[in-house]
Amino acid sequence: MTDTRRKHVPRLHVDRALAIGDTVALGAQQVHHLGAVLRLRTGADLVLFDGRGGEYPARLAALDRKSAQALVLEHRQPRRESPLAVTLAQAVARGDRMDFAVAKAVELGVAAIQPLFTERGQVKLAGDRLDRKHRHWQAVVRSAAEQAGREVLPTVHVPCRLDGWLTDAGGERRLMLDPRATGGPADGTTTPTSVTLLIGPESGFSDQELDAARASGFEGVRLGPRILRTETAGPAALAALQTRWGDFR
C-alpha cells in the first residue's frame, strides 16, 4: 500500500461503522469532490473515518460521475483526540460568524458544541429554519473534522435557550467569558478532564444571564485587556485551554 503520510490523501467521513474489508458507497458530494474537483481515478488512496475513533486507510475501488466505492484496507489509531473534553456553549452568531466559530472549535479539538439563544442575541430560529441550521452546523463539523484529522466527530447539540440549558450544564470546570473578570481561562492548580466554556453573543450577556450562570457554577474569566468578537473568543479560549490542560503541550 502507498505510504499515505507522504502526500495529500483525501480524508472523508462516512456515516456508518467501518471495518477492514468493507466496500463503502460514498455520498454524492464526496463523489463530485473526488472526481470533478480532485480528478482522482480508481485505485487512488483515501482515508475514511466513522467518527467512532481511529481512521481507515482505503482505496478507491470504483468511480464514475454518479457513484464511488472505497475498499477499507486497515485500521489505525493515530491518537489525535485531546485528553481534555471541552464543550463549547456558543451563543448563536449571525451569518458566517457561527460557521467560523464551529469550524475553528473542531480544529482546536472541542468535544461538543451547544448553540445557545440569549437575551441579546440577534438570531431567531424556530421550526424548519432551526432544523436546517442544525443540519448545516453538523455539515460544518464534518468538513472541519475531515480537514483537521479528527478521529471522533464532535456532537452538535440541538440549539436551546441559555436559561433552560444552565440547569443541565456539566463539566468539571465551568467557565464563561466576562471582560470584567480578573482571571484567565487556564488559571487553577488542578487539571480537569472536562470543561464547559460559555461564550456570549455580539452584545454580551445580560446581567441576569451572568448572575444565572454564576449560580450554576460558572466562573467568569477574561482573555486579556481587549474585547474579542464572539466568533474569535471561543477559539482563543480553546487554544489557551489546550495549551494548559490539553494536547498543545
Automatic annotation (TrEMBL):
EC number: 2.1.1.193
Domain Ribosomal RNA small subunit methyltransferase E PUA-like: from-to ranges: 28-72
Localization in the cell: Cytoplasm
Main enzyme class: transferase
Reactions the enzyme catalyzes: uridine(1498) in 16S rRNA + S-adenosyl-L-methionine = N(3)-methyluridine(1498) in 16S rRNA + S-adenosyl-L-homocysteine + H(+)
SUPFAM superfamilies: alpha/beta knot, PUA domain-like
GO molecular function: methyltransferase activity
Keyword Ribonucleoprotein recorded: no
GO biological process, one term: methylation
UniProt domain Ribosomal RNA small subunit methyltransferase E methyltransferase: residue ranges: 81-242
Alphabetical list of InterPro entries matching this protein: Alpha/beta_knot_MTases, PUA-like_sf, RsmE, RsmE_MTase_dom, RsmE_PUA-like, tRNA_m1G_MTases_N
Keywords: Cytoplasm, Methyltransferase, rRNA processing, S-adenosyl-L-methionine, Transferase
Similarity comment: family membership: Belongs to the RNA methyltransferase RsmE family.
Role noted for this protein: Specifically methylates the N3 position of the uracil ring of uridine 1498 (m3U1498) in 16S rRNA. Acts on the fully assembled 30S ribosomal subunit.
Protein name: Ribosomal RNA small subunit methyltransferase E
Species assigned in the record: Spectribacter hydrogenoxidans
Source taxonomy: Bacteria, Pseudomonadati, Pseudomonadota, Gammaproteobacteria, Salinisphaerales
